[in-house]
Each structure stands twice: as C-alpha cells, then as structure tokens.
Write a structure and sequence with these properties.
By secondary structure, the chain is an alpha+beta fold. The protein is built from two helices and seven strands, in the order H-E-E-E-E-E-E-H-E.
C-alpha cells in the first residue's frame, strides 16, 4: 500500500521534463505541473509551478521523479490535500 493510499492524500500534479535535444542536459529538471482540466483537448502548453512554459511535443511525462528536481517547483507546489 502506498503512502498516498494510507493517508488518502491527493496531489494532482504531473511530473514533466523537457526532452533531450530540446534543452541541454543541465536544464532537464523534473518540473511539477498542475493537472490540466478534465476536457478532451490536449493543451498546447503546460506551465510548471516555477513558471516554466513547456510546449506540446517538447516534454516527456514521467511516472516517477527522474533527474534533478526543479527547486522553484518544489517551493511553489501546493501541499497534498486529504480527501476526508
């Protein structure tokens, strides 16, 4: 059982980083991005909590943190909410 399942906390964010070749390796940090609204359209761009604009096609979605975390995102991401 995961920590999320035990606590009932939800953190509606995506883990995203720019693909290799789009930016240099030192800029491929793991950003935290708010989950887009539940409509059927793919957004043209995502905005990370740090303010980084990530355009459609230049990012990879991560299943878990990978590489260096974006410090700006870590400072600005909201705390997980409990669903009690």
């Amino acid at each position: 059982m995961s920590t999320q399942e035990r606590t009932g906390a939800r953190m509606p964010v995506l883990l995203v980083r720019k693909r290799a070749g789009v930016v240099g390796e030192t800029q491929r940090t793991c950003h935290l991005v708010p989950m887009p609204d539940d409509d059927d359209r793919t957004p043209l761009a995502l905005t990370a909590y740090c303010g980084e604009l990530i355009h459609h096609g230049e990012a990879e979605l991560l299943a878990q943190p990978s590489g260096m975390p974006c410090v700006g995102c870590l400072f600005r991401v909201p705390m997980p909410r409990s669903e009690h």
